[in-house]
Amino acid sequence: MTTKKLKVGNVPNLRFPGFEGEWENKKLGEIGEIVTGSTPPTNDESYYGGEHLFVSPADIQTNRYVKNSKTTLTSKGFKKGRKIKKGSSLFVCIGSTIGKVAQASEDCVTNQQINAIVSLEHNVDFVFSLLEFNSKKIKMLSAEQAVPIINKTTFSNVKINVPLFSEQAKIASFLSLIDERIQTQNKIIEELKVLKVTLSKKIFSQELRFKDENGNLFPQWEAKKVGEAYSFKSTNSLSRDHLVYQNGDVKNIHYGDIHTKFRTLFDITREVLPYINKNVSLEKVSEENFLKVSDMIFADASEDLNDVGKSIEITNLNNQRVLSGLHTILARPQSGIFSLGFGGYLFKSPQVRFQIQKESQGSKVLSISSGRLSNVKILIPKIAEQIKISNFLSSIDSKLDIESEIFQKLKEQKKFLLQQMFV
User: Fold this and answer.
1) Can you state the angle between helices 383-421 and 165-204, rounded to 10 degrees?
2) Burial class of residue 26 (count of CB atoms within 10 Å of its CB; 0-12, 13-18, 19+)
3) Would you state the pLDDT for residue 61?
4) Residues forming a β-bridge with 217
5) CA nearest neighbour of 151 among 55, 53, 29, 65
6) Per the CATH hierarchy, to which homologous superfamily does domain 22-162 belong?
7) Furthest-apart CA pair in the chain: how many Å?
8) What is the secondary structure of 188-255 as a DSSP string?
9) Do 22-162 and 222-380 fold alike per CATH?
């Protein structure tokens, strides 16, 4: 592959040897047939119960290919519909996930929120990469509308640059190798996650036990309620409007960040945490309500049952002053009961999570109070066994961090190559 620095013309910076000349400017509608999907009424049985994969925006995640449907209305999918050929490129054209792209891994039908490019004369893998590269530009066409939408006509008229078929095939083959590596890396991560959940379930059900230095099992675990092992401290109700990332004296943990980004074992040197705006008075905040190492923080509200009561354990504050904020519960362990790091994994165990979910209340928004959290039963091993458990599970987390970093670097590498190989 050679690099060419050019000032003008529809020519990429990075090309394979033997290819010259400008790329041709075309509309998406000239590259292939644009097909908008549809979703028939659920009472129309003539559509349901068939063999066709049904694809909705929920099925277009971070992977390149749509493997299977999470929203199939029956176990087998559709009998009929606007059939999309395997290899076709899919683009979400309506709603909050507008701009997401995928490639059909088999013949399928899509719902009305997806436009598909069914191409016969162009390399289908290249067309997908082309759509992926231009997705942000296409998404911007909906920016000024109240409900984000890109209709079929607008989508069809989007102009892009296309090389000859031979160069398309060369580029597609190269990018497919990178995609395969990304998919392999993603599979490694998913398998590690499954392994962690499986082992955690066995450990906290005591099906899998650790042994002491003499090869003997540790004593039986002691049963307690959360309210007997933890005391609850006050939190604030500051919204995102009261938080800044530039500077400040006191940092703040918002429940939304517990849901979306913080690790189970919270180390402040590894997380990005906002400050409380300096114009917010903290004079009435008691010193005991500032976070301490080994504190547990729970997100007390969520629209999703799987996330209600989601928690982190504070393992390192690096001498910084931090408060627990909006929609959080701050629980401080009694002295001498827990080793550092064990609580984080205890409250992520399937056995404890199930109880927290049962204690939650609400319909559209689920919540849990400190009082109901106090009723959750936990089993507590001796400190020495806690240390072995937390060290073992944190080693899997460390492996996940490493593999996730590799995954992100691969995606960045692909993004860079797309920028250099497309115009």
Assistant:
1) 170
2) middle
3) 65
4) 211
5) 29
6) DNA methylase specificity domains (3.90.220.20)
7) 76
8) HHHHHHHHHHHHHHHHHTTSS--B-TTSPBPPPPEEEEHHHHEEEE------GGGEESS--S-EEE-H
9) yes
- Judged by average pLDDT, the poorest of 56-70, 221-235, 244-258 is 56-70
Res. 364 pLDDT band, cuts 50 70 90: confident
Both tokens of 130, joined, read: 């082309």
Spell out the residues 6+ positions from residue 340 whose beta carbon is closer than 8 angstroms to its own.
293, 294, 313, 315, 390
CATH class of the domain whose range is 164-213+382-423: mainly alpha
Amino acid at 55: V
In the chain, where the domains are located: 22-162, 164-213+382-423, 222-380
Structure confidence by residue, pLDDT tens digits, 123-157: 999 999 999 999 999 988 886 667 788 999 999 99
Say if residue 391's pLDDT is above 80. yes
Handedness of CA 142, 144, 145, 151 (dihedral sign): negative
Strands 114-118 and 230-233: unpaired
222-380 belongs to which CATH class?
A: alpha beta
Q: The whole model's pTM is what?
A: 0.81
* Mean pLDDT for the stretch of residues 247-273: 95
Q: What Cα–Cα distance (Å) separates residue 93 from each residue in 28, 111, 208, 294, 339?
A: 14, 11, 48, 46, 50
